[in-house]
DNA sequence: TATTTTACATACATGACGTATGTCAATGCA
DNA sequence: TGCATTGACATACGTCATGTATGTAAAATA
């Protein structure tokens, strides 16, 4: 199958980056783990950051798909936006996502809004907010800014939960606080 | 004066980390820039991440001091919290802060809440929120979670402003959006 | 069939980090 | 005063990781 080598490298890199971090992962090791050498890696991804970008894009896509599904389950309007945020928080509890997308990604690829993958999660939040704004459900506010802040809050919620001593207890608290914050954008109080 | 070498290394590292990032900065280069060698660096800071931790602590302290001053200027209560957040956003526009504290810090030192410096900014937000909660100005919510989300939103606001094509125009939008979000914690709508 | 491109492997050059060791001055102590 | 110890660095070395240059076999193409 075409792309098999690429897929193997991607999977191995994903694992290595998650376990040792981007800086700590050796290209020799992660290629050898799937029976290849760095030659294959440079051929397919150009350099080490190119590999990171590909891994990030994959993870980002998975997160966005999950969030979209959660949003659809929640129906229309405001509930969908909150469900999407909650899904984002829960996804970010995955150590792979955390280390690769939330920590190493911004440090080595720069600000997420500038990623080639465009950060699908951010884009979805922006879209959802834009629709709610047009229907007057959320106040007049710069949509780009609002989406960015919401996502930032969600990301930090996840990091907080993950590093807390009792993540199981922390998660509902984080979700509650996130909901309150988000409702700051509501045009009228929807309690 | 005692600590002069340490101060020189700290200043040089701060500059090098800001310009080339933590991973890209060479210890040989940044020590040579102030007429020293890596020997001095290892003697004072243990290893490269120890140096980063020291630089982060310095920057974090400066941010916290600025935010505290801004909060004091704004008086008491809710206004002080918003002023503190705004000050945090503006400070984070500094490329040094952005690269070292917001991007490389979390990637190489781990989650900010676990830093030895304790992240003074986060601690101040927590304290301010705690007082507002006791006086009934903010709703009942987990204070740790709320502080974390607020700070995360502020951080992302700053990153968004910094990477926007027109930061001058973006800053007021970010501040407005941040204010709305924060007011989600208000017990009654304070418009 | 000849040629070009793809898909890797291999070898090499460069540079970075950490550690082990050496030096010299300051300080404590007898 | 003389000696031992510690602090504050510099120097040399080993290891390892990245990137590049080169080689090669298979596949596609003409």
Walkthrough of the structure:
2 copies of one chain form a homodimer. The first copy, chain A, has 191 residues and is mainly α. The first copy, chain A, has 2 domains: 1-46, Orthogonal Bundle (Arc Repressor Mutant, subunit A); 57-185, Tetracycline Repressor, domain 2, CATH 1.10.357. In chain A, 74% of the residues lie in helices and 0% in strands. Chain A has helices at residues 4-24, 27-32, 38-45, 48-73, 78-91, 95-109, 120-134, 143-163, 167-182. The longest helix of chain A has 26 residues, at 48-73. At the A-B interface, helix 1, helix 6, helix 8 and helix 9 of A face helix 1, helix 6, helix 8 and helix 9 of B. Chain A binds a DNA duplex (30 and 30 nucleotides) through helix 3.
Per-chain topology:
2 copies of one chain form a homodimer.
Chain A: H1 4-24, H2 27-32, H3 38-45, H4 48-73, H5 78-91, H6 95-109, H7 120-134, H8 143-163, H9 167-182
The first copy, chain A, binds a DNA duplex (30 and 30 nucleotides) through helix 3.
Main attributes of the structure:
elongated; Tetracycline Repressor, domain 2; Arc Repressor Mutant, subunit A; homodimer; 2 domains; mainly alpha; 191 residues; DNA-binding
Q: In the CATH hierarchy, what is the class of the largest domain in chain A?
A: Mainly Alpha
Indicate the mean pLDDT of chain A.
93
Ends distance of chain A: 53 Å
Please write the string of helix (H) and strand (E) elements of chain A: HHHHHHHHH
Structural class of chain A: mainly alpha
Strand content of the residues of chain A, in percent?
under 5%
Strand element count of chain A: 0
Oligomer: homodimer
């Amino acid at each position: 199958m075409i792309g098999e080598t690429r897929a193997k490298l991607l999977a191995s890199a994903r694992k290595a980056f998650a376990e040792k971090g981007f800086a700590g992962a050796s290209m020799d090791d992660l290629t050898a783990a799937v029976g290849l050498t760095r030659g294959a890696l440079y051929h397919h991804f150009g350099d080490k950051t190119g590999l990171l970008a590909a891994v990030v894009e994959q993870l980002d896509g998975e997160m966005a798909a999950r969030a979209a599904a959660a949003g659809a389950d929640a129906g229309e309007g405001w509930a969908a936006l909150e469900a999407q945020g909650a899904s984002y928080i829960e996804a970010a509890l995955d150590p792979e996502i955390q280390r690769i997308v939330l920590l190493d990604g911004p440090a080595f690829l720069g600000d997420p809004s500038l990623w080639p993958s465009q950060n699908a999660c951010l884009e979805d939040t922006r879209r959802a907010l834009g629709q709610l704004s047009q229907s007057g459900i959320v106040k007049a506010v710069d949509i780009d800014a609002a989406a960015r802040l919401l996502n930032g809050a969600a990301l930090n919620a996840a990091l907080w939960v993950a590093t807390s001593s009792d993540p199981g207890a922390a998660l509902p608290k984080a979700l509650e606080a996130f909901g309150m914050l988000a409702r700051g954008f509501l045009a009228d109080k929807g309690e």
